[in-house]
Amino acid sequence: MGVGSAVPESPGVSGARERIRHAATHGLTILDLSRLGLLELPKEIKELPELTWLDVTGNRLERLPDWLGDLTELTWLEAGKNRLRGLPGSLSVLSGLARVDLHANLIEEFPARIIALPSLTHLNLAGNMISRIPENSDGPGRLVTLNMSGNHMDSAPCWIPELADLQLLDLGDNRLEAFPDQLNGSPNMSALLLGGNRLTSLPDWLGDLTGLRKLDLSRNAISKLPDSLSGLEGLRGLHLSHNRLSGLPSSITGLSSVTSMNVNGNMINCVPYEITSLKTLTRLDLRDNRLTDISVDLSELPSLTWLGLSGNPLSRRPPWLSSMPRMKWLESPFESSRAGSR
After folding, report:
1. Cβ neighbour number for residue 281 with a 10 Å cutoff
2. Nearest to 210 by CA among 233, 228, 194
3. Which residue among 86, 220, 292, 307 is least packed, with the fewest CB closer than 10 Å?
4. Is 245 helix (H, G, I), strand (E, B) or coil?
């Protein structure tokens, strides 16, 4: 290459510019620049002022340019799986931005500048390195889903109670040692995911979260369930695998809508008779516990089609196993069947 010769563009950059030209020519409002190996965003994107959706997932971006704030019509930004450590302050002017996906980056501090965006409803910060949470949020009242799983947090954001519309909160795979008190008084939350933390106990007010449909507390160190669990009448999915439970409380009778219960990998030595009241239960995972006998007749569960019993020191095959014609999947120390083949 001679002196002064232009450095050829990488295929990714050339491909990005071609997509930008195509969008400009056809008046498109969406732009997909994902997985092109980009080190920075082409400035030509500024020529698309009507852009509403921008996907730059899976590149090698270390920063987002300040001029993104000029894309005033932007409502959806996907920038996951890059190398971002922060966000430009100019994003705070994008009043129409509703969805932001920044998962799997290198962000260490919660981006307080965007949390107050008036239209923001979905924020994904999973798989970053966040440990510092600002105490003041400037009113993040519109969020419906907040995913902060896989970070380095030892506490939940103190402003969670301000999120009146929050329906899904994922704080899984962090460093929480106590169930967040900030969740007390969140009756509208439908999905709470706290798996993979360091929780040892649950609060008595857990049953006050009456809007819950899914509760994931797996991979913690919980040894007892509160009786208030009976208040979760609308709960459909209960995930408690890999804790330190020795039994299930009689209060599970209150879980009248539950369809899936996973208590795999605990220390449960007895199945309570009250479990037979769960007439909507279709999936029950009791694998890898300490059950030596199951005297409770699980055939009284009319909806049960999936049952896991393997990994228990059962001394005999429960006789009721032969009275479950609707079983589609069964795994026990005595047989392993799929699609009801027994």
Report:
1. 26
2. 233
3. 292
4. coil
Confidence check: pLDDT of 137 > 90: no
DSSP label at 234?
T
> Could you tell me the sign of the dihedral formed by the alpha carbons of 238, 239, 241, 244, in that order?
negative
Instruction: End-to-end CA distance of the chain: give it in Å, rounded.
Output: 72
pLDDT in tens, 24-75: 999 999 999 999 999 999 999 999 999 999 999 999 999 999 999 999 999 9
**Rg, Å, the chain Cα set:** 25
What is the C-alpha separation between 321 and 327, in angstroms, rounded?
A: 9
Helix (H, G, I), strand (E, B) or coil at 231: helix
Q: How far is CA 122 from the centre of its chain?
A: 12
Q: What's the rounded Cα separation, in Å, for the pair 151 and 330?
A: 36
Query: How far is CA 53 from each of CA 24, 73, 175, 220, 279, rounded to the nearest angstrom?
Result: 14, 9, 34, 38, 45
Report the distance separating Cα 82 and Cα 197, nearest Å: 25
How far is the C-alpha of 47 from the C-alpha of 134, rounded, in Å?
A: 35
